[in-house]
Design brief:
The chain is built from eight helices and seven strands; from the N terminus they run E-H-H-E-E-H-H-E-E-H-H-E-H-H-E. The protein is an alpha+beta fold. The chain folds into two domains: 81 residues, K Homology domain, type 1 (Ribosomal Protein S8, Chain: A, domain 1); 117 residues, Rossmann fold, CATH 3.40.50.300. The strands form three sheets. A three-stranded antiparallel sheet has the order 1-3-2, covered by helices on one side.
Length: 216
């Protein structure tokens, strides 16, 4: 039997453990082969080495999330635990780790490719992410879904969506209308994605109060 000790010095332990160890109970249930003891800001973990390493990796992701966002909602903790967990991708349980957001009319928006999954994970582990690739691979749609997910989970208070309308140095002057009318055709993919994910009345409210701002 192996044993490690993890100190939660960088964050308040309650963010990981929960009030009255409620989050710790969720972690323990997900790792039944391990013995997890919490005392103050220290966790003592005993059990199989491979299971300890797996839990250690997930605890590091939880800590990093708290450092970036000052909190770890219970649903995010569960997502971290379930991601890439044995059994979820082998058909024994429904795989919910690829669900980004539940959209309108029962639409479930998921990551559909490995690269889309990598894009989502990159946004969870980094403050700034650049995505490049061929047209039609879902970069814009996936990015909007990730942003809407964060808004619905109250991880962010505002979304600013922008889409380059022209190459650097070019001009929109030849197009008729004001600036909004000139760039709206280029922003249509963003509107289409938003209307898939947010009810129309709520989306209009978000656009009016600038909770969601679309900027050229």
């Amino acid at each position: 039997m192996s044993e490690i000790k993890i100190k939660l010095d960088e964050i308040h332990p309650v963010e990981i453990l929960g009030s009255n160890n409620e989050k710790l109970k969720i972690i323990q249930e997900a790792f039944p082969k391990l013995k997890i003891h919490a005392r103050g800001n220290e966790l003592k973990i005993q059990g199989d080495t491979s299971e300890i390493e797996r839990l250690d990796e997930k605890l590091n992701r939880m800590i990093n999330h708290v450092l970036r966002h000052d909190q770890l909602p219970e649903n995010r903790l569960v997502e971290i635990i379930e991601s890439e967990q044995p059994g979820l991708k082998n058909g024994s349980k429904e795989d919910k780790s690829d669900v980004l957001v539940h959209g309108n009319h029962g639409l479930v928006i998921r990551t559909k490719t490995i690269n889309q999954q990598k894009l989502y994970q990159a946004t969870q582990d980094n403050d700034l992410v650049f995505a490049t690739g061929p047209a039609g691979t879902g970069k814009t749609y996936t990015s909007v879904a990730i942003a809407v997910r964060a808004l619905k989970n109250k991880e962010v208070k505002k979304i600013i969506l922008t889409r380059p309308a022209v190459e650097a140095g070019e001009s929109l002057g030849f197009l008729p209308g004001d600036i909004s009318e000139k760039v709206d055709p280029y922003l249509q993919p963003l509107y289409d994605a938003l209307y898939d994910m947010i009810p129309g009345d709520k989306l209009r409210e978000y656009l009016e109060n600038k909770t969601i701002e679309i900027a050229p």
